[in-house]
C-alpha cells in the first residue's frame, strides 16, 4: 500500500479517480465498491447513508447509495453497470463511521454483479498508475487525509 500525505492508496484495487470510488474484483465475479480515503477525508464524518435495494439494476454513473456527511450530501456512483447483490447496510447501522475508520476494509459500501468487467476500457486505473493519479489529485486538492478516532 502506498501512502501520500496521509492518504492510503492500496495498489491492488481499481479506481475511478475523479469520483473517488475503489473497486475490488472478487472470486465469484462480483465487485466490491467503496469510497476512497481521499473521499472520506474530504467529506467528513458520515451521518447517514441510504443504500439502493439488493436486486436493483444500475447503469454506469448511477447512484448506489446516498450519503450525508458533516460537510456534504450526495450520491455514491458506480463506474460500471450491473446488479446490486449486497449492501453493507448492517455494518453501517452498527457503526455509521466505519467508512471513515476503515474505507478499504469493513467500510465497503456495495457488492455489484457487473454486466461486464473491462476496467481499462472505462478509464479505471490500478497499481502504480493509480498511485500516480492519486498523488496528483491530492496535490491539486491540497489535501491531507485523516481518519476518525474512536
Describe the structure concisely.
The protein is an alpha+beta fold and 150 residues long. It has four helices and twelve strands, in the order E-E-E-E-E-H-E-E-E-E-E-H-H-E-E-H. The model has no long low-confidence stretch (mean pLDDT 95).
Sequence-ordered SSE layout with sheet pairings:
Layout: E1 2-4, E2 7-9, E3 14-16, E4 21-25, E5 31-35, H1 37-43, E6 46-51, E7 57-58, E8 63-69, E9 73-77, E10 82-87, H2 89-94, H3 98-101, E11 110-114, E12 125-126, H4 127-141
Antiparallel strand pairs: 1-2, 3-4, 3-12, 4-5, 5-11, 6-8, 7-10, 8-9, 10-11
Give a description of the structure.
By secondary structure, this protein is of the alpha+beta class. It has one domain (2-141): RNA polymerase II/Efflux pump adaptor protein, barrel-sandwich hybrid domain (OB fold (Dihydrolipoamide Acetyltransferase, E2P)), CATH 2.40.50.100. The chain is 21% helix and 35% strand. The chain has helices at 37-43, 89-94, 98-101, 127-141; strands at residues 2-4, 7-9, 14-16, 21-25, 31-35, 46-51, 57-58, 63-69, 73-77, 82-87, 110-114, 125-126. The strands form three sheets. The chain has a seven-stranded antiparallel sheet. A three-stranded antiparallel sheet has the order 6-8-9, with no helix packed on it. It has a two-stranded antiparallel sheet with strand order 1-2. A hairpin with a 3-residue loop joins β8 (63-69) and β9 (73-77). The two termini are 23 Å apart. The mean pLDDT is 95.
